[in-house]
Amino acid sequence: MEAMAEAQERRRSSGKMAVSSALGVRPRMKGTLLPQDSLRARKAGKEARDNRLLAAAGLDLFRRGLAFDGVLPELVEPRHPAVTPNLNSIPENGVGDSEDMSSQAIVIIGGSLNNRGEVGPWLPNRIACGIQLYWKVMKTFAEQQANALCYVIPISGDANEQAVMEEERTRESLVGAGISSHHIVMDCTASSMIENTVLLARLLARLHIQKVHVVTSEFQAPRVKLCIDGVLGALDDLGFSVAYYCAPDDLSSAERAQRDMAEQTLMLKTQKQLHEAINQVRSLAQNGLLSNPTSRHSTRSPSRLSAS
Asked: Smallest Cα–Cα separation from 123: which of 165, 170, 159?
């Protein structure tokens, strides 16, 4: 009996070992990079999503004048919110009605980010030119002892997560160059260059600004000029004066020709939208929703500006 019991026990143990071997550690996959590549891609995708989430959360805190102290948000000095829907909360500093008001604005046209969430090839040069213009304007204010401000307005062409990250990266560069975050006005709600220009018109009117500097790249300048001159030019009573600056784009002749064709196509496609935007801002002005400084609208042709 004991011998039979021992034999049965050995059979059970042998069966358990066989099952354990079948369900045990999977054999290593040698000679392939598939498992490692898949894990790396999955990790990179998660990091990209996390970065977008952090950028969106950071912008939301920035708009509300909040900052993290450890793990809790703490109320700090208020900053300028997005142009919409909080346009009325942007302060006018008590000098908006002054006849000698000489505040200015620098508009930096954005550029797309690459697949790693880094600024593309043109945006750094535009930012550098915008910074150069800012300090030039501020130096003039100091020499004239003017009671005026210079606002920097980075704008992008899309209302998506990438646009939020793009404007956050632009703001970081501007603040890193010594520009006060209180003088940086961001908006991530517009879905096109034309919508951005309509919001820009409302913002300029709110801040009683007439002199505007627009920084873009040479290949993009005709379309930018068409949009901004079309919308701001429709508000003749507001007296906007717009100057354009082209940052270096380092394009080859073939690349420039390709970009020029793409820009021409975009200008043709957006004619209807631009016409609607012009009518929209005229309606805003007629209904008293825009301020009414004196003088006339004028523009200057684009000029080249070094990024150094």
From this structure: 170
Residue of 245, 255, 250, 256 lying closest to 216 (CA atoms)? 245
Q: And the tokens for 126? A: 């535009």
- Provide the CB-side half-sphere exposure for 158 (13 A, CA): 10
Give CA–CA dist 191/160, Å, rounded.
8
Structure pTM? 0.65
Spatial contact of 216 and 247, defined as CB atoms under 8 Å apart: yes
- Tell me, yes or no, whether 240 lies in a domain: yes
Asked if the structure places residue 22 within a domain, the reply is no
Considering the domain boundaries, does residue 18 fall inside one? no
Per-residue pLDDT of the chain (308 residues; tens, 9 = 90+): 555 556 555 555 555 454 444 444 444 444 444 444 444 555 556 666 666 666 556 555 555 555 545 455 555 544 444 433 344 445 444 333 333 458 899 999 987 666 665 666 788 899 999 999 999 999 999 888 888 889 999 987 655 566 677 778 888 899 999 998 889 988 766 678 888 899 899 889 888 899 999 999 999 999 999 999 999 999 888 889 999 999 998 889 999 999 999 999 999 999 999 999 999 999 988 887 775 444 444 555 565 554 43
Residue 285 maps to a domain: yes
Q: Which residues, at least 6 apart from 190, have a Cβ–Cβ distance to it below 8 Å? A: 155, 157, 159, 196, 198, 199
Residue 25 burial by Cβ neighbours in a 10 Å radius (0-12, 13-18, 19+): exposed
CB count, 10 Å around CB of 238? Answer: 24
Number of domains into which the chain is organized: 1
User: What domain range is 116 assigned to?
Assistant: 80-304
Please say whether the dihedral angle defined by the alpha carbons of residues 155, 290, 244 and 100, taken in this order, is positive or negative.
Answer: negative
